Amino acid sequence: MTEITGPKNVVFLVLDSLRKDRLSAYNDDIEFTANLGALADDAVVFDDAVTQAPWTLPSHASMFTGRYPWEHGTTHARSYFDGSHETFISEFADAGYDTAAITSNIWITPHKGMTDDFDFVENFLGTADNTISQRLSKLSTKLYDSLGTLPKRVIGRQLDRAFRLFGVDDSCKSEETVAAVESYLDAQPADDPFFCYVNLMEPHEPYHPPAEYLDTHGVGDTADIPQRQKDLFTMDDPDFDALRRIYNASVDYTDDLVGRITDSLAANGVADDTVVVVLSDHGQALGEDDGLFGHQFTTIDPVIETVLFVDHPDLAGTRHDQLFELRRLHELVPYYAGLAPEPDEIFADTARGGCQFPENFTGFIPSDAWDEYYRKHRYLIRDGITVRKSVSEHGDARYQALDRETGAAVALPDTLRAAIDDIDAGADSTAEGGPPDAAASEADEEIQQRLEALGYR
Which segments show compositional bias classed as Low complexity (predicted)? Predict the structure, then answer.
């Protein structure tokens, strides 16, 4: 890596649920990501980046802290970040940066403990964004997390029915998010460095891109397109071909939204002093493996292999094909900003990740499919092989080993089996989510509605 100078502004742009194979930077057949492609042309592109968790909250916690999910403890079983581990955002605050988080993603809010290090937070929660609401939300989350599986299933299903009855706004608030970014950049003093975290939700279900994008990608009737995780279990015959088209339309729309952000950087005269980090926190399953949809119940390659490139004003475009764990962004982003020395051995011989037993929409899993979907997942990549381990609630483990180049099943080497087993052998079980102390409180209604709108409980 080249010696760089700072301080540089940083836009940390997370395109939620974006698959690598839907960007021209990774797939020459894609023709609808011109803005992202232009950024990638002059960027440091990571061809083999891997997330540490297949859903937003633990993935972000790993990126922000540099720790694995079983170390920071933010997972299905404890769906909030307790702040016990320092995030790299604090390095920017300590260096005098103005730090901002602009996101409609309910997991990245004060209510989930993920934004404590930011000076400014816009999460579009309106009157729900207040100290009392934040405290109630954290208390209700602890209460919910302390319940057993059966009560969670019952409560989750009833909440879903209630929110459908009241007609929840299920937009991703993409226009509002970009408008807030533009306003933030317009108001930013010219000489004050900034770190701006942005999360665009368009590639995440539910999919409602504008009509012009639907027309471009041949999306007509949307009645049979799965829009939420529960549709995997409640739709009789999901149209996965149409799902892939509407997903492409959402990515196409996302690309134009990114173009507005980069145009705003240029219009405000800060493009030449700003590092733009573009990534996905995880990908998305779109009908693979006999009808998988979403990212809650699977760790297949399109879910755990992620987008990552860095457009840096001081660096020429280059590509890295070495294995990279997203958690190392904890060290790499301050370096790119000129705040920290170049980290040692940034690339990995082994990538690890996983998630706990899912809790969102488990109330819709048919009883005969329960053991198939209610499982703990671990994955490990080494020596050109991806190993997956899934464990039932009864402790029964399954293993899968695939050649990364061909996708073919291979014999599981004893060394890799031992390595993936060591993940849990060395994990602190209390850190990854035993039942926390609970305090009774009613969840804030707006927070719960937004969770439902994004396809969660």
Answer: 426-441
